[in-house]
Write a structure and sequence with these properties.
Strand content: 5-15%
Radius of gyration: 19 Å
Number of strands: 14
Oligomer: single chain
Helix content: 25-40%
Number of helices: 13
CATH class of one domain: Alpha Beta
Structural class: alpha+beta
Strand order of the largest sheet: 1-3-2-14-13-12-11
């Protein structure tokens, strides 16, 4: 049966719809959505497929889905809003806001190292009991006592899970609110979009079932298999932290209810495109100002890049956002955003005043090196499905 794309596609952007549908025809999707905002106007807003493994429930306009590390972009945005207000200084020690953090050689570690993945805290020394990730106080207490795995600032390594607790606790200390509260009250709410970080059962009916990735094809890194085969590595402990259990499954109610500002945001492509579309045009959209131009420039300026020391993938970061490396040409040289394990992605391209979002429920396999060569974008996780859509998009611009 031919898959039908629902929603809106402006004249001239038909190749984007075709690329989106081709992912379904190739058997790569169960349910997905993509959206593009250019200079404040939504030119693409498409969804198709099913929200569940049994293919009984259609993906709808308001379906949301777990987007893994795409969440980190929103957490970074919240932090920069606090910087802009004068509540947070990226160059002072974390311990100035979070005194208990000063233990075990961290007294002078600056806030900016939390955002650039230079803190040396990507993993804890030992695997944690099942469910520990859902206990905010327990996780932050463990990070207070943890000794950095390298001299802070001397290297960078992807803080896959700990990023959210580290940046999130600083946010909580300076604002007296959680990351999820600030996203709802100051970003998603004013823009009228869906981005949930910790939510109740009343929303569950709109949440797509996240489906595990199939075995990786030859030549593509299989992160899950690598972790299973080498559970004591820093990479394994960085990406999982706690022993897996039914309550830590991405679809579990316990996971949906808690806040993990690195990894458990739930949203749709429309929200990502709107938020990044605002950042791509000076920080404002529909009368809502998210950041100033100066703050956006600071947040998206390249800070670290190359082969990071946790998963040995090629990545480049600004202050919390994945950014472009110098010398690449597509999308624009100032593009930034964040992607998530398995495929989701949010992207801002200020040169085109463009915001892009892609979400799906069928997890795929990511190959950062392959993605860099295919589209010249650098990100912690990327996916050939998003790559195909982005290629089609930039071809018509």
């Amino acid at each position: 049966m031919e898959v039908v794309a629902h929603g809106h596609c402006a004249s001239g952007f038909e190749p984007v719809r075709e690329a989106f549908l081709q992912n379904f025809r190739d058997g790569l999707e169960v349910g997905a959505a993509t959206s593009v905002v250019i200079n404040g106007e939504t030119v693409v807003d498409l969804w198709a497929g099913y929200a569940d493994a049994n293919r009984k429930h259609s993906w709808n306009r308001d379906t949301i889905v777990h987007v893994m590390s795409t969440t980190k972009g929103l957490t970074a945005l919240v932090a920069h809003r606090l910087v802009e207000r004068g509540l947070l200084d990226l160059d002072v020690p974390v311990a100035q806001y979070w005194p208990e953090f000063a233990q075990n050689g961290k007294a002078s570690l600056p806030v900016r190292y939390l955002l650039t993945h230079q803190a040396g805290l990507p993993a804890l020394d030992a695997w944690q009991p099942a469910g520990k990730l859902q206990n905010w106080a327990a996780m932050t207490a463990l990070l207070e006592r943890q000794q950095p795995l390298w001299e802070p600032g001397s290297a960078f390594g992807y803080h896959a899970v700990t990023f959210g607790f580290l940046v999130g606790e600083v946010i909580r200390r300076v604002s007296s609110k959680t990351v999820g509260q600030l996203i709802r009250e100051e970003i998603a709410g004013p823009l009228g979009v869906d981005f949930e970080l910790g939510f109740g059962e009343d929303i569950d009916a709109r949440v797509a079932e996240l489906l595990p990735a199939p075995p990786a094809p030859e030549g593509v890194m299989d992160l899950v298999r690598s972790i299973t085969a080498n559970p004591m590595t820093v990479m394994a402990r960085a990406f999982l932290v706690a022993i897996p259990s039914p309550d830590t499954d991405n679809n579990a109610r316990a996971v949906r209810a808690c806040e993990m500002p690195s990894t458990n945001g739930h949203t749709n492509a429309r929200a990502l495109a709107m938020i990044y579309g605002a950042l791509a045009r000076g920080g404002a959209i529909d009368g809502v100002q998210l950041l100033s131009r100066e703050s956006i420039a600071r947040a998206s300026e390249l800070q670290v890049g190359g082969i990071e020391c946790v998963s040995m993938a090629e990545m480049s970061f600004g202050l919390g956002f994945a950014v472009r490396r110098p010398g690449v040409d597509v999308p624009g040289p100032a593009a930034f955003g964040h992607a998530g394990f398995g495929g989701s992605e949010g992207l801002a391209d200020p040169g085109r005043k463009l915001g892009f979002g892609y979400v799906m429920n069928q997890l795929g396999h990511t190959s950062p090196e392959q993605f860099v060569h295919a589209t010249k974008v650098t990100a912690p996780a990327s996916d050939p499905r998003a790559t195909r859509i982005l290629r089609a998009l930039y071809a018509v611009l």
